[in-house]
């Protein structure tokens, strides 16, 4: 076997050195005969590399040719252009095959890269302490909710129902054992209903979870939300599902967020049918001891050089066991390196420009579709790069036309929201991978 | 080495934007004034060349599996086949949107469906969820499944038994499911003390989380009795698959009576660690527990000959993440299993067990085994004999770096009186006898150095990019970002900062 260097001869020699006559002899004590597998596993016989390649290529052909298909869908997963330099660098085995950086002397590459990423995110969202890697936006939001329960010693959480539906589901799953009261905060005209927030909130609420831009793409009135939330001593958890939006939008830390969680998939990660993505979880330094997961800090080595190490470790599972702030251990580290390289490449100007371009091209498409008279607005709300439109035509027909023309159709919002007025409503998303020509074509197809 | 921020030059570009920037549209017409950031957020300004050199240089400060021996116990640092990477990066997979219509992702769904069948056969379980992103995420999922199972039966169980040798994630995961963690002591042979287990297992107890072979590398020979004790009291048996590399084609957890199994695809199934993920911590269950899995799972509609996402309904614990899985990790696993076949999988476990016992046999004269028995796929020895020379296990580990090897796992597991100053060596099947001989030779050399020149060890490593770090300072005065450093710049006096580009 090409991945197993030792020959049968070598194995025999080693068994002799161990002092046993056979492999069976070696394991007979540990593996009782009664539970030992009789015979072979019933799986296909080994395939050569060429046979395997052919098999997997054939399976891949059963997917659509997604490279050529431009997505009009986002909903928590956004296709952005990923510079080739990032993909190339990421494949360096030193990043790709190494273990968690427990030994800083052999891991400065990983450690410094994470530190740089923490620094980037801290500037983007204006928070002091950034946990670089929770698995994804959903699990990070759930961890943030748990953190708010620990910080406030309260057991009630309020969640805007314009937080990504999967994130809301995950929050419920993670919190279920602690039996908290979870209050759904309704929306009005595509944004959080501020009047309802004022009525529903009280001093028993640990935290209020708000997504911005929200699941409908809408831009929330965060300053007003923050004032209401803080007037009742609750924590404001702000969720970002599309981190490129930070290029043009205000930093959550500047508008009153206490904890921020962000899906970092847009920072140079492939769609990959849903994962692995990554999420950051950030807060103020005063809350640092309740953070879940790993964080990197700067210090010196014995020679006085600046170096980076895993720090504030007394919160983690390998030290605190059942008293840890979370069980998280392996996370999505390689995605952090990807995001650090991505942000370094696009830089200050690139982030702003991509974010600007995404905003403008989404508004361009909305305008074209409204002009076609085949769509109408259902809410009059400010949005970033995703927007809702009600179709006058049947959605199945629209999807068919779009697929035939190599576009991944927008999300049918009724898959997640059952309201009567959201029937036949689509959630469009636009990023820089859709050119003006692409958008004109979409409008043309859909107005025919 | 300089940070990327210290290489930044105003107005430098590393990215090419599309030519058409929709200049006729004004941002003020799109977004309300209250939402727009007044100032640009400062990242760095570097060219593509700067970035490529920066990260290439950073990478060279790391030690990867392709660089050499990586015997981290309980981590299964085995070779990551290159064909896996290529096949996982086919455009039809990587560009697939998770909410794209099902008819456009039949290939991705087929792989998930087939992989489920393969994993079920390898472990004798009935159904897997591919959702959990990592081992601990899988443990949490498994605990929530067990919790919901009992809640639905009106059975108020609230305690979880966990051996003292378990990974820290086990108690932490059980605690996240709001279970009270009860520690089960190991006996003098390093395995679960059956009398103690029988005493602790009661009708308030959910069950037992067990790693087998355990984290000392020993098979629990009492596995059949353990199963009887736990099931007799109506409990469930959870298998932590961190150490499955000793079991392929030898024992299947399902046959041994386990109800819930988690597998770390980034360990036994050859997918890379990436410096701490992404991996996947898939969870397999027996039939009665299938309705409780996270929703959805992949199913096949034989009438229409198509794969689809099946919603598991109200018994499901719900979702544990956004979307479905860490999909590329699943492809790599699938490709690896098909590359190996039944004989290859058996060979992997057989070879890794022989490797570990060979290392143990050769080292035990120099480093006392925690338990003097044959081990599974990893062996635990201790460095406590060297304390009298002023040398700790940590020093032995650091000295190994000078010889170009990654140290084994140290100080874990830890429970007295057997497992102190531990060194846990896991030499997976991808390590050759020659490599093991080299490691053994170096370890013996280090044992001599410990006696004759202990300072060489206590000041090690000497040849690495950096030397031992001041971790206490890092925790006392956290500098977590470049801006933190800038605020303290008058106090911080670093050596070589500007020379080392």
Automatic annotation (TrEMBL), chain A:
Transmembrane segments: none
InterPro entries: GcvPA, GDC-P_N, PyrdxlP-dep_Trfase, PyrdxlP-dep_Trfase_major, PyrdxlP-dep_Trfase_small
Oxidoreductase in keyword set: yes
Record-annotated Glycine cleavage system P-protein N-terminal domain positions: 1-446
Top-level taxon in the UniProt lineage: Bacteria
GO BP annotations, alphabetical order: nucleoside metabolic process
GO molecular function terms attached to this record: glycine dehydrogenase (decarboxylating) activity
KW NAD (keyword) present: no
Keywords: Oxidoreductase
Protein's UniProt name: Aminomethyl-transferring glycine dehydrogenase
Lineage of source species: Bacteria, Pseudomonadati, Atribacterota, Candidatus Phoenicimicrobiia, Candidatus Pheonicimicrobiales
TrEMBL record, chain B:
Cofactor(s) demanded: pyridoxal 5'-phosphate
Record-linked InterPro entries: GDC-P_C, GDC-P_N, GDC_P, PyrdxlP-dep_Trfase, PyrdxlP-dep_Trfase_major, PyrdxlP-dep_Trfase_small
Keywords (A to Z) from UniProt: Oxidoreductase, Pyridoxal phosphate
Domain Glycine dehydrogenase C-terminal: 348-452
Superkingdom, natural source: Bacteria
Catalytic activity: N(6)-[(R)-lipoyl]-L-lysyl-[glycine-cleavage complex H protein] + glycine + H(+) = N(6)-[(R)-S(8)-aminomethyldihydrolipoyl]-L-lysyl-[glycine-cleavage complex H protein] + CO2
Broad class of enzyme this protein falls into: oxidoreductase
Its EC number(s): 1.4.4.2
Designated name of the protein: glycine dehydrogenase (aminomethyl-transferring)
Taxonomic lineage from the root: Bacteria, Pseudomonadati, Atribacterota, Candidatus Phoenicimicrobiia, Candidatus Pheonicimicrobiales
Molecular-function GO term, any one: pyridoxal phosphate binding
Residues annotated as domain Glycine cleavage system P-protein N-terminal: 31-312
Function: The glycine cleavage system catalyzes the degradation of glycine. The P protein binds the alpha-amino group of glycine through its pyridoxal phosphate cofactor; CO(2) is released and the remaining methylamine moiety is then transferred to the lipoamide cofactor of the H protein.
GO biological process, one term: glycine decarboxylation via glycine cleavage system
Keyword match Lipoprotein: no
Any one annotated GO CC term: cytosol
Source organism: Candidatus Infernicultor aquiphilus
Keyword Metal-binding applies: no
